[in-house]
Amino acid sequence: MACVISAISSNSGKTLLSLLLISWLKSINKTVQTFKVGPDYLDPQQLTAVSKKACRNLDLVLSGESWVKENFNHYGGLTDYSFVEGVMGLFDGIGSSSKGSTAELAKVLNLPVVLIVDARGKAASLAALIKGFREHDKELKIAGVVLNNVQTPRHEKILFEVLDQINIKSFGSLPLCKDLYLPARDLGLAPAHEILDLDIKVKKWTSIAKDYLDIESFRKLLLPPESNNKTVSFLPKKESGFMHPIAIAEDEAFHFRYQETKELLEDNGMPTITWKPLENELIPKEARGLIIPGGFPEQHAHQLSNSRISLNSIKIFSKKYPIYAECGGMMLLGESIFDIEGREYSMAGILPFKAKKGNLKIGYREATSKNKSPITTLGSKLIGHEFHRWEIINERYNSKINPLWDLKGWNMEIKNEGFCNHLIHASWVHLHWASSPLILENWKRSVMNKV
């Protein structure tokens, strides 16, 4: 009943193995539902691009155990095959714990684990490494190992003998070659739209999967869970006469979004419309709310700054209808962005701050709202995730813009964060709307109040 692709550590080849398996399955005309552990946006984009089916996040911290189980069993059972790609190393969770880790999710879903191991520089020591992972948590079932970056046939023979000695099954051995290189950015893999010649790559990945992986074993491991074919309860569809479109910024600058957000809106009287700020266009006139997700606006700061129609449209819209902006989306609402080279470009100027490159901020956050926004009320408590390198400078509040909430998380003091008023919610924190019903209820109320 499906499996989890995990690893010893980050950058070991989890997404690479996932892409190889998807490419092979698509080559034999099979459908596959992929899932990603945790709050990641970039890896799921790549899995979605190749599978042609939206990858779905499974996050025990953001969404809870019941939501994760229902999501996996429903969507995983609607296709010919399914599997879960893990996050970081197998046991890596919040801080020094395994809370929210791939291991915790594998146990919750009762799925076997396939480890992909970077084999560079390894021989007999591989045994100690794998045995340590196998014995660290006896409740986990490690089904076997895929070796990555194997350098020569001699190296492969040594590693296979090592695995035989500790009774660990090998599911394949991937060579060190340029066809298996995946480009990366400072927050992880490059966005899917930056992959050149994807169709050519998929053909190569298909061939590599057939030549270097134990396809027959994976055919059994990737069988889907049994689907109940029922409507999932966390995406309730409420019939009503309410029908007001929501514009969502979607282009190469803004693309960090969970699949369920659109589904949730559309099932509750809020059909979504794509808006492309980089194309210097007006927000669609029929829109009654605007969502600006995260992304990499700093990489497109010059083009965004020149998109005066887009920026002026946001200014006008912000005075009439609710706006939800997170991370990079919030940066668009500020006065200016300093790009990667440190050049400053003006933005919408709705919120009183500038954004420049800073230190990496990452981790789950518990947020307690201090003021009302389109999705919160005073005292609302939500769980979100923060992941960014840009930081805010010269921020200030006034009679029109209030501080949004207090944040706390592992190894950090409680801090004030975000900007809001009754029409604006702007924060570094990414939220998972589908697992927090109050977000939708408050958003819907904000939209209705402005109609």
TrEMBL record:
Q: Which cofactor does it need?
A: Mg(2+)
Query: What keywords would UniProt list here?
Result: ATP-binding, Glutamine amidotransferase, Ligase, Magnesium, Nucleotide-binding
Q: Does the keyword Kinase apply?
A: no
Pfam families noted in UniProt: CbiA, GATase_3
Q: What class of enzyme is it?
A: ligase
* CDD domains reported for this sequence: GATase1_CobB (cd03130)
Extract the GO molecular function terms from the UniProt entry: ATP binding; cobyrinic acid a,c-diamide synthase activity; hydrogenobyrinic acid a,c-diamide synthase (glutamine-hydrolysing) activity
Tell me which residues make up the CobB/CobQ-like glutamine amidotransferase domain. Answer: 246-436
**Residue ranges occupied by any CobQ/CobB/MinD/ParA nucleotide binding domain in the UniProt entry:** 4-182
Is Nucleotide-binding given among the entry's keywords? Answer: yes
**What are its E.C. numbers?**
6.3.5.-, 6.3.5.9
Name of this chain's protein: Hydrogenobyrinic acid a,c-diamide synthase (Glutamine-hydrolysing) / cobyrinate a,c-diamide synthase
Species per Swiss-Prot/TrEMBL record: Prochlorococcus marinus (strain NATL2A)
